[in-house]
Write a structure and sequence with these properties.
elongated; single chain; mainly alpha; about 80 residues; 3 helices
């Protein structure tokens, strides 16, 4: 994993941990969805070009964002 990507994930996780309002949650959710869409498009291109190493790298990144999405869902559920 590249350093910049891991920093981005850490920042998103920090924002999520600090989010107190519905608006803040929606903003984070929007960012994550946009990133997932971009990665999804990129993984499709990688598979079309038979670049399986690139596809594997992108799928790993998608897993990180999927984990963030799960945290968002859990945070939305009132306890």
């Amino acid at each position: 994993m590249d350093q910049q990507f891991l920093m981005e994930i850490m920042e998103i996780n920090e924002k999520l941990a600090e989010a107190q309002s519905e608006a803040a949650m929606k903003e984070i959710e929007s960012i994550v969805r946009a990133k997932q869409k971009e990665l999804s498009d990129n993984v499709s291109k990688a598979f079309e070009q038979d670049d399986f190493e690139k596809a594997k790298e992108i799928l790993t990144k998608m897993k990180y964002f999927s984990n963030v999405e799960e945290k968002i869902k859990l945070k939305k559920i009132p306890l």
